[in-house]
Amino acid sequence: MAVSETERLIEAEAMCPHRLVLEHVTSRWGVLVLIQLLERPYRFSELRRAIGRVSEKMLTQTLQTLERDGLVHRDAKPVIPPRVDYSLTGLGREAAEQVRDLALWTEKRMAAVTRARQAYDEARAR
User: Fold this and answer.
1) Confidence of residue 53 (pLDDT cuts 50, 70, 90)
2) Which of 16, 17, 84, 124 has a CA 20 to 30 Å removed from the CA of 6?
3) What is the DSSP letter of 30?
4) Taking the model in full, what pTM does it have?
5) Are strands 83-88 and 42-43 parallel, antiparallel or unpaired?
6) Domains, the chain
7) How far apart are CA 83 and CA 45, in angstroms?
8) Is the pLDDT of residue 13 over 90?
């Protein structure tokens, strides 16, 4: 019998809940969403444009996951056309600041990483 994705997630969450949250926060799109929402609340389409190269489906899944984890707040306004704003919760702001610091560190240290990669590749080529 095949295990559904939901069942797999529930099982993983029960075994190691902090790892699952870490996975959500540090995922490719999770990082970008959190950093972007540090600036201000965004509507879905604005956030998608600001992040770039993310599919509607992937952004929706990422936002739902971060909302479930208590990091993102979804504010659906009962207007026509519908308006939904996304913002960080207090917990989300804490996580976003940590992720942003890591992203800034990678930018600052990229030259050192590039040198290390070149040295590694040269040593392996011999």
Assistant:
1) very high
2) 84
3) H
4) 0.83
5) antiparallel
6) 5-125 (1.10.10.10)
7) 10
8) no
